[in-house]
Specification:
Blueprint: E1 2-6, H1 10-22, E2 26-30, H2 33-42, E3 47-50, H3 59-68, E4 74-79, H4 84-92, E5 97-100, H5 105-119, E6 126-129, E7 132-135, E8 140-143, E9 146-148, H6 152-163, H7 171-178, H8 189-202, E10 210-213, E11 217-220
Parallel strand pairs: 1-2, 1-3, 3-4, 4-5
Antiparallel strand pairs: 6-7, 7-8, 8-9, 10-11
Helix pairs in contact: 2-3, 6-8
Length: about 220
């Protein structure tokens, strides 16, 4: 999943971004509200971690502008302004959740996972398609009750495909949701990683779950003619 972090305090921004990357998220970082708006309006993020006290454009204004334009990203407010009125203003403006500084990174991760699940209409921590199971908290994968070992990038790709199960997902959508600005969009890395997943998820099973839709993209699900 791809996350935008909008935070002007550089040490905290680096810490949160690095922690999210280590958890397998693709992360972009904006240092002020103006840059945050530009990024959010130019890319399809699964979630945005948004500080309120930002230079140039404050976080509440960023939030309102994004929601006014129908931006669907799950938005988690991260701020030192933890008064009841601040929380109410943020939630009423369209935020999905609110974390006050200082915070435990584990709580930030848990709340981020929860709002992303809600965005894709998954209430359970475990995502299931046929006999494939993904524990989004433990970041473990099983097929037919057998554990499947995946790299962080493989897991990120699989999690997005499962969140969009039974839907055709284009290569462009995969780029937008699984990779950040540091990746090279001209490469065939998406096809390569789809190949890796097929070997680990489908190879030893009669029922294949990862399907190519020629000229369109990929679909994860129980294939029908």
């Amino acid at each position: 999943m791809r996350v935008l972090v909008v935070e002007d305090y550089a040490p905290l921004a680096r810490s949160v971004s690095q922690g999210l990357r280590e958890e397998g998220y693709a992360v972009d970082l904006a240092g002020d509200g103006e840059e945050g708006l530009l990024f959010a309006e130019s890319n399809n993020y699964d979630a945005i971690v948004l500080d309120l006290m930002l230079p140039k454009v404050d976080g509440l204004t960023v939030l309102k502008r994004l929601r006014d334009k129908g931006n669907p990203a799950a938005i988690l407010i991260l701020t030192a302004r933890d008064g009841v009125s601040d929380r109410v203003s943020g939630l009423d403006a369209g935020a999905d959740d609110y974390v006050s500084k200082p915070f435990a990174f584990e709580e930030l991760l848990a709340r981020l996972r929860a709002i992303i699940r809600r965005r894709y209409n998954h209430q359970d921590r475990t995502l299931r398609v046929a006999d494939l199971e993904i524990d989004t908290v433990g970041r473990t994968v099983k097929r037919a009750a057998r554990s499947v070992s995946l790299s962080a990038r493989e897991y990120a790709l699989l999690e997005y495909l499962v969140a969009r199960s039974e839907q055709i997902v284009t290569r462009a959508e995969i780029w937008e949701h699984v990779y950040d600005f540091s990746a090279d969009p001209s490469s065939n890395v998406v096809d390569v990683y789809i190949g890796y997943l097929r070997k680990k998820i489908d190879l030893d099973h009669p029922v294949k779950l990862i399907h190519t839709r020629r000229g369109q993209g990929y679909m994860l699900g129980v294939d029908t003619p």
